[in-house]
Design a protein that fits this description.
The protein is an alpha/beta fold. Helices cover 44% and strands 13% of the residues.
Amino acid sequence: MGTPLRRIDCHQHAWELETLANVATNAAQIDCAAVNLVSCIDQKQANANPPAFVAKALFPEQVYVFAGLDHSAYFSEGRLETPSLAEQIDRLLALGADGIKMLENKPTARKMLDIPVDSPYFAEYFAHAEETGVPILWHVADPEEFWRPETTPVWARERGWGYNDTFVAKEQLYAEVENVLTRHPNLRIIFAHFYFLSADPDRAARLFDRFPGVHLDLAPGIELLYNLSRNPDASRRFFERYQDRILFGTDISSNQPATEAALRAGIVTRWLETSEEYRVPDGADFLLGPPEDGVMRGLALPADTLAAIYHDNFTRLAGPRPKTLNLPLAIAECERLAAEAAFLTGEPAESTLAAQAAERLRALA
């Protein structure tokens, strides 16, 4: 199987400096012209922006970066002063970020950062995001199975992704987000993992129809492919109708070997391109679960739909090529984050990931 279409993977991660070479290796392995590294927030080191910046410097033609926000003022209970969230948009765009990644409405992150996204804390940020047109890739909620102990997969429970009544309910997470979308209808949003609506495509269609700036990515969450495989004909019609609103993604991390990256990407590309019936292959990473969990039935989408999903929709939102990293500004930002991480963790600033990233960037300047 293969396709001559250019692919851009809109949803990958880089967590550490030691494995950044895998970003380019894995892109070649999964036949992608470019990848988008999305950075998550962190309670101890602000976010995972520093390794993503280094990857962008190393592979400037291949790497987009959707940078994470910095909530260290909140996590330090006001002892640290950080730029406002709106100011952070301008700083990140100036240093060469291509967009923003938000994890703030994943249940674990929402519990950690106990602030609703429709609260005044985020108001200026979303207004400025709408004004600038910066694209945001946003993880909201999780599969509905994670709120029921009897249906939460073992691999999810092992990562703390089984949610009891101490976590915000899924519908409240959606309500907060839809309040934001109503206030700011021109936001350009990519909801990760199909917004966890794969079991309810009619609701996904209503979301598309109500909010023209909303897009969904296909990064598995393996339940996404299982749910949409239940009725391949209906799913094919949905994808053809909304082909301009869906983006290819894999959720590959740079610390995964090329074999795992290929298997993860392959289950998605096979599903999009063929009408085959198959299961998760042996050797796939544990987040996809065991093969006996379910069957995927491919959609065999037409070439124009594939082109939109693989390439055109992402470049329309983030640009035809990655923005150039401004090395001096990126170094300064990594040094700022290193100082924050040192304060939050008590470790020496020079030993933080951000400081090590700044050193790598200085060597490339």
